[in-house]
Amino acid sequence: MNLHMNKKQLQPFTPILYIVISAFIMLSCNTNISKHEDFKPIFDGKSLDNWEGNLNIWTVENGIIYGITTPKIQLKKNTFLIWKGGTPSDFELKLEFKISKNGNSGVNYRSETVKGIPYALRGYQADIDGKHKYTGQNYEERKRATLGYRGEKAAIYSQDKNYNGGSLRANITKNCWTHRKVLQTLNDSDSLKAKIKNHDWNQLHLIIKGNRLKHYVNGVLFSDVIDKDSINRALSGKIGLQVHVGPPMKVQYRNILLKEI
Q1: Strand, coil or helix: what is 234?
Q2: In the 3-class helix/strand/coil scheme, how is 166-198 assigned residue by residue?
Q3: Alpha-carbon distance 205 to 136, whole Å?
Q4: Which of 2, 34, 131, 210 has fewest C-beta within 10 Å?
């Protein structure tokens, strides 16, 4: 076979090749657009419309939500900026965050408000902190405490069957739910910590479906929890952004996108 074809021999193939390449590019672009369009912004970049919280703490500027405490503005209890647009069950949530060194924050989901405490939530949280000791783990605010540490795939179980409705604290040791099993090590915590950018923007991606709760940071799986606790788990609830009690801090959020699945 002669592998050296002249220009005239190649010419008949050129239009067909052009069409094939063009179709491939258009299909790729349309697929990317479709994936992007599946997500809807729940923060308009200009205001806190459809959100509620302590406006002494939460502000908006240049497309960014700021949560700030100062020596003069301190908290006695953790506070949240709560999205009023629904109580999603199965969903994906994407956002970007930046946090100061002493900051302590997190993104709550499938959560409920707490009677008698303004802007408080009880429920699952993708943890975020400025020293990145906890960032990415699954912590349940005001409930079962730590469910999955960073780098773990873990299964969560109910307390003993003879439980009579008393305090959940009896089932928590060292701020961690005792009825759980580590199924797999995804990666060691320090290796995952190295994936987080200090004093810069990071992306958080939550994939929440059924009793499977996955937390990704910058595209890497940090925590994977399978909640088999039929007594205490939640299958839907509110979304909220947290500022934690503690020293003066600043946390920033932007590009908050939601896709219900």
Answers
A1: coil
A2: CCHHHHEECCEECCEEEEEECCCHHHHHCCCCC
A3: 10
A4: 2
Cβ pair 26, 215 in contact under 8 A: no
Q: Give the Cα separation of 224 and 155 in Å (integer).
A: 9
pTM of the model as a whole: 0.85
Q: How far is 242 from 151, CA to CA, in rounded Å?
A: 22
Tokens of 185: 């090590």
d(CA 26, CA 193): 38
Q: What is the pLDDT of residues 203-226, one digit of tens each?
A: 999 999 999 999 999 999 999 999
Contacts of 214 (CB under 8 A, 6+ apart): 206, 207, 208, 221, 223, 224, 225
> Of the candidates 82, 221, 202, 62, which has an alpha carbon nearest to the alpha carbon of residue 130?
202
Which residues contact residue 98 at a Cβ distance below 8 angstroms, ignoring those fewer than 6 apart? 199, 200, 201, 202, 251, 252
Which residues, in sequence order, are bridge partners of residue 156? Answer: 180, 227
d(CA 53, CA 228): 32
Q: Domain boundaries in the chain?
A: 11-41, 42-160+169-260
Residue 232 CB-half CA count within 13 A: 28
**CATH of the domain spanning 42-160+169-260:** 2.60.120.560
CA distance 127 to 137: 6
User: Could you say which residues of the chain have pLDDT below 70?
Assistant: 1-37, 161-166
Are 107 and 126 in contact by the 8 Å Cβ rule? The answer is: yes
Q: Which residues have CB under 8 Å from 61's CB, separation 6+?
A: none
